Amino acid sequence: MNMAAKKALEVYLDMLSQPCRAVHIFLNHNKIPHTVKTVALRKGENRTAEFTKLNPMQKVPVMVDNGFVLTESDAILKYLATNYHVPEHWYPRQSERRAKVDEYTAWHHNYIRPHAAKVFIMEVLVPRMTRQPVEQPKLQRALEQLGDTLDKLEGMFLKRQPFLCGDDISLADLLAVCEIMQPLGGGRDILKGRRKLESWRSRVISALQGSFEEGHQILYQLRDKTTSKL
Amino acid sequence: MPLEIYLDLLSQPCRSVYIFAKKNNIPFEFKKILLFKGEQYGEEFGKVNYFRKVPVIKDGDFTLSESIAILTYLAEKYGTPDHWYPADLQTRARVDEYLSWQHSGMRGIAGKILWLKLMIPKAFGIDVPKEKMDSAMEDLEEALTAFEEKFLQDKPFIAGQKISLADLVAIVEIMQPLGVGVNVFEVRPKLRAWKDRVRAEIGPALFDEAHQMIFNVEEVAKSTDPSAKEIFKPKIKKLFL
User: Fold this and answer.
1) Is A177 left (phi over 0), alpha (psi -120 to 50) or beta?
2) Which whole-number Å values give the CA distances from A199 to A170, A205, A224, B1, B137, in the listed order?
3) What distances in angstroms separate CA A126 from CA A45, A120, A140, A142, one per listed residue?
4) Rounded to an integer, what distance in angstroms lies between the CA atom of residue A191 and that of residue A186?
5) Which pLDDT score, from 0 to 100, does residue B53 have?
């Protein structure tokens, strides 16, 4: 392995963060040499002077490729897919197929990302921080909203296709699956009973093989810790 | 069959698509959808776009929603000047970075001011509590500061020396509060200078024409379809209040 190339690409990640997992899995699956710098959000490592200099927004993931600093997982994944010549299905070159992936990554921001995260935040993070029980009415509303969003995911994107944007896995599926996994940290499988989406998830996990499992280790550990308390 | 673009120019993402298509002389059929008349709930439109949102394009059999996806698709398909969506990977990544951040960082934050100050009270007769208004103004200040400090910095445009899709998507959002007399440029000279540059690049006539709607918001509010009002009211309560 070219050690210079490995050090040239750095990614700052917290594996409990959904978009960080997507970047990490993408890099490993495509065997792109890189160095991972861990930023533990729960320890406030994103608020250090050093990290703030790198990213004033104090968010992860951040990518640094030979000095080129880039934030936002969509932008990072699209950049990596192009710069490192990964198989085309990740981010197709043909305009209409590419547009479908862009359509998903745009929609994702205001639907899957916030609505799945909210459930995890309410069931795991807030109770942990406040040491109060889960606010059930709020959680129910969040679950309803997520339910609507999952209906849309299935009806608008998946439809009768194997993957969200066509016959092959793409960046869309990767981003979506990492968000959908998150509430599992609190022991909740949000796809339970949704057979089409469950099949889709199995296909995605199958396509990603080892890198998916490895990328989700920390989430699984959190799940085991949380569910053992129940 | 010509390219069809479904638009309501009161909507920020519709404006960015409209401006882009006009600026680049992309031939299209303007399909007007008046959101405040509830036209997005019509049967025909439902066949075009599952989500019943604008903007949406129909290019032959190909249908596409989401303004960001539409803009990059049009840039590619119609071979628009490179600066809009540069081929250079790092410059393009800079544009993608803004286009991604803005979904949660800017989109809707500026637009909310128009809703809370005018649309909600005037079109729907719902009172807006002061804390909601104050909170929305705070969010706007935060977004504009982030915009200036992280995305614009000391460059003429977001991606560098030339205007790109990032500036276009940003400007249509940032202009929105002007419709209710909230002049975001008054105390932000850097932002104002950027706005002037963007307007000059787009062309003042096109820029002003595209933004005309936001200065007519009161008219739009008064003309809101009563049946549309009933559909909107619960959504608005949930979204804004």
Assistant:
1) alpha
2) 16, 10, 24, 38, 44
3) 19, 9, 15, 14
4) 14
5) 82
Cβ-Cβ pairs closer than 8 A, A with B, add up to: 82
Tell me the residue type at A42.
Answer: R
ipTM of the complex: 0.95
The lowest-confidence range among A52-61, A74-83, B14-23, B124-133 is B124-133
**CB-CB contact of B195 with B157 (8 Å):** no
> What are the tokens at B46?
């439902």
Neighbours of A206 (CB within 10 A): 10
Partners of A72 on chain B (C-beta within 8 Å) are: 96-97, 100-101
Tokens standing for A139?
């959680």
Answer for the pair A169, A177: CB distance below 8 angstroms, yes or no: no
B72 and A96: CB-CB below 8 Å?
no
Say if CB A27 and CB A6 are below 8 A apart: no
Residues sharing a CB contact under 8 Å with residue B41, sequence separation 6 or more, in sequence order: B52, B228, B231
Beta bridge partners of A33: none
A69 touches chain B (CB under 8 A): no
- A61 preceded by cis ω (within 30°)? yes
What is the pTM (predicted TM-score) of this model?
A: 0.94
Place of tokens 């104050």: B134
Taking an 8 Å cut-off on Cβ atoms, the answer to whether A70 and B76 are in contact is: no
Q: Which residues of B touch A (CB under 8 A)?
A: 50-51, 62, 64-70, 72-73, 76-77, 89-90, 92-94, 96-97, 99-101, 103-104, 107, 146, 149-150
**Worst-scoring range by mean pLDDT, A140-144, B148-152, B220-224?**
B220-224
